[in-house]
């Protein structure tokens, strides 16, 4: 399945959260830990992630290389697994290596028929993400972002890439 995701940085987390709470419906909130893995067998530009959510869920996700688009677009294949630690251990024992961990708090809101995710990412700051299925939803999402007082500046890198860039500049250590 193709993932088409709009990600924008936000300057004022509390203000954005207040606007989402006022105008939308909270669907849920959880802490997430994403472990990104590397291997020589992964295609360049792709990623393998193991995610653990505070609600007890765990997932393995393959993300393919980016496809040319105005927003971040790539193939995504995801499977739910029973146990985060066991899934991660199997992959590590199979030759994958841990590249980076991303920790975040995510709140999901339903607003104007779209799921808006408000993320507070350790070491990076606050972001809004909206996944869209088609160009019509993309236009609606763009208008929604504007209505929340957020500047339209889509980011195509994932949190792992952003955090790795920041760490390579010596701005933060894990």
The CATH topology is given as: Hypothetical Protein Pfu-838710-001
In whole angstroms, the N-to-C terminal distance is 32 Å
Overall mean confidence score, pLDDT: 94
Corresponding CATH architecture: Beta Barrel
> How many structural domains can be distinguished in the coordinates?
1
The largest sheet, given as strand count, sense and whether it forms a barrel, is:
8 strands, antiparallel, barrel
Question: In angstroms, what is the radius of gyration?
Answer: 16 Å
Widest sheet: strand ordering: 1-5-4-3-2-6-7-8
Class by SSE composition = alpha+beta
**What share of the residues lie within helices?**
25-40%
Q: What's the CATH H-level homologous superfamily?
A: Hypothetical Protein Pfu-838710-001
Task: Describe what this molecule looks like in 3D.
The protein has 174 residues and is α+β, with helices and mostly antiparallel strands. The chain has a single domain (2-165), classed as Hypothetical Protein Pfu-838710-001 (Beta Barrel). Helix content is 25%, strand content 45%. The protein is built from four helices and eight strands; from the N terminus they run βαββββαβββαα. The chain has helices spanning 13-23, 84-93, 135-147, 159-168; strands at residues 2-10, 25-38, 47-53, 58-66, 72-81, 97-111, 114-121, 125-131. An eight-stranded antiparallel β-barrel has the order 1-5-4-3-2-6-7-8, surrounded by four helices. β2 (25-38) and β3 (47-53) form a beta hairpin. The radius of gyration is 16 Å and the shape is globular.
């Amino acid at each position: 399945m193709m993932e088409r995701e709009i990600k924008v940085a936000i300057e004022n987390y509390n203000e954005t959260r207040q606007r989402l709470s006022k105008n939308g419906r909270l669907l849920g909130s959880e802490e997430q830990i994403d472990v990104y893995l590397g291997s020589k067998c992964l295609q360049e530009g792709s990623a393998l992630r193991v995610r653990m959510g505070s609600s007890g869920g765990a997932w393995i996700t393959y993300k393919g290389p980016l496809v040319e688009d105005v927003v971040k677009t790539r193939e995504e294949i995801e499977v739910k697994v029973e146990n985060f630690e066991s899934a991660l251990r199997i992959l590590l024992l199979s030759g994958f290596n841990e590249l980076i961990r991303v920790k975040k708090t995510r709140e999901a809101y339903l607003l104007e028929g779209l799921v808006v995710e408000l993320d507070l990412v350790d070491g990076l700051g606050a972001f809004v993400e909206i996944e869209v299925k088609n160009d019509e939803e993309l236009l609606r999402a763009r208008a929604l972002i504007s209505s929340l007082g957020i500047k339209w500046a889509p980011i195509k890198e994932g949190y792992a890439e952003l955090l790795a860039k920041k760490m390579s500049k010596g701005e933060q250590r894990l």
